[in-house]
Amino acid sequence: MRVPGSGSPALTVDPDGAHDGMRTAGDRVRKRALEERDRTPDPDPYGRDHDEWNPGQGPNPGPAQSDLTVDKFFQPGGILSGRMESWEDRPGQWEMASGVAAAIGSRRHLIVEAGTGTGKTLAYLVPLVLAGIRAVISTGTKNLQEQLLRKDVPLLESLLGHKLHVALMKGRGNFLCLQKWEERVRKPMLEGTADLTDFGLIHDWASGTETGDRSELQTLRTDSRLWPQIDARRETCSGKQCEFFDRCYVTRMHQRAREADLIVVNHHLFFADLALSKDDFGAIIPHHQAVVFDEAHEIESVIGQFFGVSLGNSQLDELSRDVQGVASKAKFGSKQLDRLLKGLRTAGKNFFDLFSDMESRTTLRERSEFRRRHGKQYDSLASALEGLHSHISLVAGHSEEAEPFSNRAQSLLVTLRALMDDIDSDLADAAAGHPALSLMIDDRRENFVHWVEKRGKAVHLRATPIDVAPILAETLFQREGSALLTSATLAVDDTFDYVRGRLGMGNSNELIVAGHFDYRRQCLLYIPDNMPDPRANTYSERAAEEITRLLDLSRGRAFVLFTSYRQMTDIHKRVSSFLPYPCLMQGQGSNAALLDRFRATKNCVLFATMSFWQGVDVPGDQLSCVIVDKLPFAVPSDPVVGARIEQIRAEGGNPFQQYQIPSAVLTLKQGFGRLIRTASDRGVLALLDSRVVTKGYGRIFLKSLPDYPRTSSLDDVANFFQRPA
Q: Does the model's pTM come out above 0.90?
């Protein structure tokens, strides 16, 4: 189904930062971007002042000048069918590719839902290559970045018969810092056998790597203590003064990107960059004429991070450790500095201890009153940061290694004052170089929610945009070029009204492409008709009984997905002891380790919450059943969700219809999407929430799902599992 839009210019995206664990929103990204701009000239022929649209005139023109078209590539008897042994006709892939080509050619935006199995990667890669323009592809995860580079691009190169100019961009924390590594080789300073093992792995790899990208080190532990001490992320980078600048892996990454036609990034990097580009600073991701967002359903949550503001106790600890570690080496340490760092640690602990009695996610209202009530702790922390900034500023003229720490202390102080509503004209001036801080300080629409997040010992004060639509409309969708959004889950009730409104997309071309799989044959949707309301006291007991029956019929081989951690642990306790199958539960190890165990364990069952509702791929009969306990409505007590509900209600809208239902629909589609991943997969989807059939809004959920055959009979489920594939 293609629904043409009615005329709005699209965009030229010019985002320029890297997500590397920003200590204050926009600050670290902006600082590094400015350094890159100052130290590296941009030879890009499509510089920031170049607004012309010149298909076929990119850095490496070529394909756009041939007579190859999307139709000739995808049609039966075309390039794809003639050169790919496993080719099968996918009308949806051809339809999507035609839609992408039309959007690029008319410089319009496109939003397209492409069901699983469509082959959407080739469907957007081919039109981008044939257009001969520079484009950015932004993926949901770094794993998808790697898949594009290692699988999809080589496939397309083999089909076209020539190399493509493609570059991969990641945040600095993914790369080895040559200066830090040389220092560590001279003075290993290792603690324990784990550090010794990691050092040996990195040493062998570092001598031969061309990219310095940690992803090549597949045997290095994800929680390696050594890697953060030698990566390129921390603010001890001396820029062009570094003796390793020309050999620097980050410098080389930027050079490859400027020479590429296709630049592959992830959403975190792109939106960190976009937050910087709002004020047109620096240039890290080169100028381009089109951007594709793969897994675009994640955009709203990601952009909230990078146009938000955050300050945590861990940032104060990191600053103290970093200063202490560099001061002796750079010879600006002193007893006075030691006293200042000790004072900062004490003041930081006393201030963040004020939030110890709060829930894990709590809205922070009346910030000014909180600041006045706890003036002693607040003033002590502010004074400690100011004192450290002033002291290091005095020695920065004698030691260039000290300057970044002076800037960090000042940045944390500005962030602290802004988050605690200690705002005056001087603070606004100090925040002028920080787009997110400036937005928050000048929050005339009251579009930020202020809240506290606690995870273990970590405490963070956060300010998050409630409505990202105006931000994206200004920074992304109102610019020249094409923004292409794609995912298997974007439409609600056969429309894109929800996603368009939440993202501020405005008019665009639209396309819904049915999935390539035969859902009528491959799966069965089971909704029992005798379940109590999920809010009833008897629900957990009945759900446990139903789950036990289903898992007995499926012989394990299932994901059981929950909307709350408490419900998951309760049901797991009720069910696992009665099943003859291995029952894993989220929290018993890292998510990656649990997934590996599930794949490797016959008849396994995994009980999980939202972390496993999307981005998890288990093809084959190892996963033959997905059970969802409740419709995945976002928790209204969550600070960000609650603020969005309040805002919609204050504007005269209906938050349940406009926000809560559509959001839950997309999440349910993601959860069910874990089951059928290939044309040979078969399985049962089970939804234990009676509201999908007893409430009027249930129709929206059912209509938004693929054309699954549906039953309320366990006999049908048993027959399905007994039926041969």
A: no
